TrEMBL record:
<dbReference type="Pfam" id="PF03060">
    <property type="entry name" value="NMO"/>
</dbReference>
<keyword id="KW-0560">Oxidoreductase</keyword>
<keyword id="KW-0285">Flavoprotein</keyword>
<dbReference type="InterPro" id="IPR013785">
    <property type="entry name" value="Aldolase_TIM"/>
</dbReference>
<keyword id="KW-0288">FMN</keyword>
<dbReference type="GO" id="GO:0018580">
    <property type="term" value="F:nitronate monooxygenase activity"/>
</dbReference>
<dbReference type="InterPro" id="IPR004136">
    <property type="entry name" value="NMO"/>
</dbReference>
<protein>
    <submittedName>
        <fullName>Uncharacterized protein</fullName>
    </submittedName>
</protein>
Length: 388
């Protein structure tokens, strides 16, 4: 497909300037990531709890469940998804793996992704200060993309990495007022802070590059959050100096998206006012669709937070998936529900029970499901008629 944007260049290789964001649990796995890679884009597998995609692993995890087993089966699932995605991408594009810093197994997931042949590790939901060490010698072949939301965080990561002689291969800037899932602000109210404005973050970061004696071209900047719109892509790439956009929600609902059809319909059918923010159990604000579960949880949130109590038994599944968990650790400012259970219910298409992450902005094709190719084509050429 012809488009008039400059390619995204990572380690001298050219890609279309569209990145598919990692989406857990099981929303972006081998099918979606490889479809994006086949368009010569960057497709991302979300590494969190991929065992749900493999019936044999899920069945095994139910026999004498343990934390160790949960970790081991998820690493097997990640390896399987990477192998499949690499084969199905037919040598085009890139297969990246998203790892959330907040997840207890983040180091093991990074290691597995490297061993399994991932082309890049994308890390957010916490400052990825130690990502270079986690990747170690694999860095020769594995690109590193931190996800950050404002220039201060970018400065902290850059300075720390530069002391180790490492630079990010690209930086994802995720806007807390638009993106889906966990958001990079401290509080729900804080998501609209002006310090997150894309244009401002870019300007401040380019200034920071100057202070650090870094060439601006050296580190591509990728904007994430509400960017699934040709006009916005044009402005970001042509006027603001960004190098690519990262898209989540609009790819989650494509034909190739790995999620259940009910998941896609829930995201596509949500009106703007049904997309809400709340505190996640991981201690960060998050954004999703106000389904029956989420609406009722939000109503009870204050009461539940007032009853927060540190108790290992509150991790009913006993898998301790998060390093810090508001429910298990009794943190009164964090969420009070088991996010692993809720995301798994959404993955299975249980609309009333599950937690469905979604970005704030309208989708390019409304409630119509399109393919990855059609979505990419619209984003880069504006050619398909977008429905409001
Ligand atoms: C269903 C869903 C799950 C997500 N899960 C993750 C995740 O596991 N890790 C992560 O870093 N970002 C996650 N995200 C954020 C996306 O990677 C992406 O940056 C964001 O959705 C961009 O905003 P947009 O949805 O407006 O395009 C998720 C987004 C969605 C829609
Ligand atoms: S309660 Fe749920 S979200 Fe919290 S650590 Fe345990 S499994 Fe994870």
């Amino acid at each position: 497909m012809n488009n008039s944007f400059n390619p995204l260049i990572i380690r001298n290789k050219e890609f279309i300037p569209v990145v598919q964001g990692g989406m857990g649990v099981g929303v972006s796995a081998s099918s979606l990531s490889s479809a994006v890679a086949r368009e010569n884009g960057i497709g991302t597998i979300a590494s969190v709890d991929l065992r749900h995609l493999h019936e044999d692993l899920l069945a095994e995890s139910k026999i004498n469940p343990s934390e160790e087993k949960y970790t081991r089966l998820n690493l097997i699932a990640l390896n399987r998804e990477i192998q499949k995605a690499k084969t199905q991408s037919e040598g085009r594009g890139m297969i990246a793996v998203n790892v959330m810093k907040a997840v207890k197994d983040h180091a093991a997931l990074v290691r597995q992704a490297c061993e399994s042949g991932a082309d890049a590790i994308v890390m957010g939901a916490g400052l990825p200060l130690d990502l270079p060490e986690l990747v170690g010698d694999y860095r020769k072949n594995v690109s590193l993309f931190p996800i950050l939301s404002e220039s201060r965080g970018i400065g902290i990561v850059l300075k720390r990495w530069m002391k180790k002689g490492v630079l990010p291969d690209a930086i994802v800037i995720e806007h807390p007022a638009h993106a889906a899932g966990h958001l990079g602000s401290a509080t729900v109210k804080g998501v609209n802070d002006e310090k997150f404005d894309f244009k401002r973050v870019l300007e401040e970061t380019f200034e920071l590059f100057k202070q650090l004696d870094l060439e601006r071209e050296k580190i591509p900047m990728i904007l994430a959050g509400g960017m699934a719109n040709f006009q916005k892509v044009s402005t970001a790439l042509r006027e603001w100096g960004a190098n690519a956009v990262q898209i989540g929600t609009a790819f989650a609902v494509t034909k190739e998206g790995d999620a259940h059809i009910n998941f896609k319909n829930t995201l596509m059918g949500a009106e703007r006012e049904q997309v809400v923010e709340f505190m996640s159990v991981a201690g960060l604000p998050a954004r999703g669709v106000a389904t029956r579960f989420l609406s009722s949880y939000i109503k009870r949130e204050e009461k539940l937070q007032a009853n927060a109590k540190a108790d290992p038994k509150r991790c009913t599944q006993g898998i301790n998936c998060l390093t810090t968990c508001g429910l298990r650790d009794g943190l009164p400012n964090a969420g009070q529900f088991c996010i692993d259970l809720k995301l798994a219910e959404a993955f299975r298409g249980e609309v009333d029970k599950g937690l469905f992450f979604r970005g704030k902005d309208p989708l390019p094709f409304g409630t119509t499901m399109k393919s990855v190719r059609e979505t990419v084509e619209y984003l880069l050429t504006g050619q398909l008629v977008a429905i409001k």
